[in-house]
């Protein structure tokens, strides 16, 4: 029993400290102390994961197979801790404006991260649902944390649509339980291999419900209706956190469920069709709606939908050819590149909003002269989101498109390329505003220094920007780790 709890250690660290923060907030009013405790908890979780890895616990499971500690789970635990650390560090300006509820804000980030980590390492449908609800409830509150019109509306919409998605997901799990008699992914896989013939329709129906539930968390169209309002109304650090952490965990569980439990050749052709269709819809819906946005947070919300479509190309390719690891490792590589890229973009947006009080792209006119370094980093991040060299997502798109071609889905790679061209139109709008457009006021303003920004924000921005460049120049560093991670799932 103690060995089982030991494998749960990285998540327990976050949950215990989160509970402590809820109480400590009543007595500790110093923001930096609360932030320091939160950062220590996240680093402690990372150290715990590293210790389990170094002591040879990889491949062990706990609680009768409900939880597994494999390279796949470790990859996402590290990625999610990084996203959470960034969210906490860039939240310091937000917390400075909050006279109260600082402890609740930080505790909810820890609870959400613990739930997302559990998602990546859970091999049981009931465990998956509990982990999903743990993170979802925390995120509903975080999205509506600002008690203004936009925050309340965003939180309510996210809650209502999330409740419907959870119900649909649970219904799919119930169908699988009724068919197979088990909620364990390995047991479900064995049942399908031995007795699945003749029950394809029911299995596909159950899987469709699962796709709806997980697709909601990943902001996949047509289940993306929550994303624009949530990104707009949520505190900007939380919007950044949602854009990378929720998406990463959602795709982690999609890979684990559909290729550990539902990966039999009997069903693979269905998954290929469904994922290819959703990829096409998501890319076009996200990119077309992003073209119309003037609010940069809303633009990145629809961009997130389009990026989910790009990731689905990898899922479709794996379904078409399970022996091809490039699709799965390409997805993990893309998620790592997308995480650092989107975080860099959001951190710059946060700094600009704190100094200029705007999220309107038109108000970015002339920032290339007034804030040259920040403008350059934002431009670099947006170029990476397009997928141009030498940035992180350039090789990510090459890997995914190449896998689609090798798996007989060349038409999907063509659609992805077309959407890459479409995305350039809106990703380059802020770049044009910053470096080409002239501001309405023609005064010769000197460059604005970035010194007043907190160290945490600047550290996060520096690391994220460096990550974009390093992953783009030396992609093998992440690809090797990604291939090792997915080998446990698709072997």
Descriptive account of the structure:
The chain is mainly α. The protein has a domain at 264-491. 78% of the residues lie in helices and 1% in strands. It contains 21 helices and 2 strands. The chain has helices spanning 2-7, 9-24, 31-54, 71-90, 92-96, 102-121, 125-143, 149-180, 185-195, 200-217, 227-233, 236-261, 265-290, 296-320, 325-356, 367-370, 372-386, 392-406, 410-435, 455-473, 476-490; strands spanning 60-62, 67-69. Strands 1-2 form a two-stranded antiparallel sheet. Helix 12 packs parallel to helix 14 (296-320) and helix 14 (296-320) runs antiparallel to helix 15 (325-356). It is globular and about 70 Å long. The mean pLDDT is 86.
Topology, please?
Elements (H helix, E strand, L loop, with lengths): L1 H6 L1 H16 L6 H24 L5 E3 L4 E3 L1 H20 L1 H5 L5 H20 L3 H19 L5 H32 L4 H11 L4 H18 L9 H7 L2 H26 L3 H26 L5 H25 L4 H32 L10 H4 L1 H15 L5 H15 L3 H26 L19 H19 L2 H15 L1
Antiparallel strand pairs: 1-2
Helix pairs in contact: 2-3, 2-6, 3-4, 3-6, 4-6, 4-12, 4-15, 4-21, 6-7, 6-12, 7-8, 7-12, 8-10, 8-11, 10-12, 11-12, 11-14, 12-14, 12-15, 13-14, 13-19, 14-15, 14-18, 14-19, 15-17, 15-18, 15-20, 15-21, 17-19, 18-19, 18-20
Task: Give a brief description.
The protein has 21 helices and 2 strands. The protein is mainly alpha-helical and 491 residues long.
Write a concise keyword list for the protein shown above:
491 residues; mainly alpha; two-stranded antiparallel sheet; 78% helix
């Amino acid at each position: 029993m103690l060995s089982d709890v030991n494998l749960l250690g990285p998540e327990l660290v976050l949950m215990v400290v989160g509970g402590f923060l809820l109480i400590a907030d009543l007595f500790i009013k110093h923001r930096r102390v609360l932030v320091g405790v939160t950062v220590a908890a996240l680093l402690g979780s990372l150290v715990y994961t590293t210790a389990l890895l170094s002591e040879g616990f990889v491949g062990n499971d706990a609680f009768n197979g409900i939880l597994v500690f494999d390279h796949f789970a470790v990859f996402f635990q590290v990625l999610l801790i990084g996203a959470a650390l960034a969210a906490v560090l860039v939240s310091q300006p937000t917390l400075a404006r909050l006279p109260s509820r600082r402890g609740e804000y930080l505790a909810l980030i820890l609870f959400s991260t613990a739930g997302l980590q559990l998602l990546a390492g859970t091999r049981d449908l009931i465990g998956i649902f509990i982990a999903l609800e743990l993170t979802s409830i925390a995120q509903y509150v975080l999205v509506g944390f600002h008690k203004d019109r936009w925050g309340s509306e965003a939180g309510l919409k996210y809650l209502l649509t999330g409740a419907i998605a959870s119900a649909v997901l649970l219904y799919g799990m119930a169908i699988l339980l009724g068919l197979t008699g088990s909620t364990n992914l390995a047991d479900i896989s064995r049942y399908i291999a031995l007795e699945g013939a003749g029950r394809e329709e029911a299995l596909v129906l159950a899987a469709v419900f699962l796709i709806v539930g997980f697709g909601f968390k990943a902001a996949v169209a047509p289940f993306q209706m929550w994303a624009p309002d949530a990104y707009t109304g949520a505190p900007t650090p939380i919007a950044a956190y949602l854009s990378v952490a929720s998406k990463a965990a959602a795709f982690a569980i999609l890979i684990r469920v559909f290729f550990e439990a539902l990966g039999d050749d009997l069903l693979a052709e269905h998954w290929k069709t469904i994922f290819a269709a959703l990829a096409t819809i998501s890319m076009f819906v996200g990119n077309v709606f992003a073209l119309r946005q003037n609010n940069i947070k809303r633009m990145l919300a629809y961009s997130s939908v389009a990026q989910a479509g790009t990731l689905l190309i990898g899922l479709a390719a794996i379904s078409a050819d399970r022996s091809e690891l490039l699709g799965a490792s390409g997805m993990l590589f893309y998620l790592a590149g997308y995480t650092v890229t989107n975080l860099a973009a959001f951190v710059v947006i946060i700094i600009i909003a704190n100094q200029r009080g705007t999220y309107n792209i038109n108000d970015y006119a002339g920032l290339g002269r007034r804030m040259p370094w920040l403008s350059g980093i934002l431009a670099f991040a947006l170029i990476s989101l397009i997928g141009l060299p030498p940035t992180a997502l350039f090789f990510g798109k090459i890997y995914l498109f190449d896998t689609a071609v090798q798996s007989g889905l060349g038409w999907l790679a063509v659609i992805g390329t077309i959407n890459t061209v479409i995305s350039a139109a809106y990703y380059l709008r802020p770049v044009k505003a910053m470096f080409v457009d002239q501001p309405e006021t023609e005064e010769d303003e000197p460059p604005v220094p970035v010194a007043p920004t907190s160290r945490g924000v600047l550290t996060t921005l520096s690391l994220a920007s460096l990550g974009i460049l390093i992953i783009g120049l030396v992609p093998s560093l992440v690809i090797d780790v990604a291939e090792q991670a997915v080998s446990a799932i698709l072997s």
